[in-house]
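Thread: "does anyone have the structure for this chain?"

Original post by V.I.:
We have the sequence but no experimental structure in hand. Need at least a predicted one for the grant figures.
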Amino acid sequence: MKTGRHVTGLFLLVFIGLGVSAQAADRVRAGQWVGTTTVGGKTYPTSSCVSQSDAAGINGDAKAVKAYLETIIPPEICKLTEVKAEGSLIIYTASCTAGATKTTKTVTTTYYGNRSEGTDSTGGKTDAKLVGACKSQ
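Reply from O.Q.:
Generated one for you, tokens below.
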């Protein structure tokens, strides 16, 4: 189902862009993260294993953050611009296409120790927290 793929893509965009942790200079630590994402008035539970290499990408400078996000969010779905990574804050603009619908939004995430929360300019919200080691598949 195309809609399901787009929701999954938007979830990844929001979740990864919003990140999940901060300790010292690290925004994200490897491990299992759970939370919620609210898009279009609907709330979805989230769960994701963040690998050490995923964490390294998000913990980098703006160029590293953008490069990492583009590995999980194909540029043909969303073009990322104006990526800023300063301290515990990541802000970027995403121009996304879902079928005939095009949306541009600014995503802002703040990190608080073992959790994060964020919003986007279209009303989306997310929160996430570290719950431990990644679950075995």
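V.I.: this helps a lot. Helices lie at 2-18, 52-58, 62-72.
O.Q.: and The beta strands are 31-39, 42-50, 78-86, 89-98, 101-112, 115-120, 125-132.
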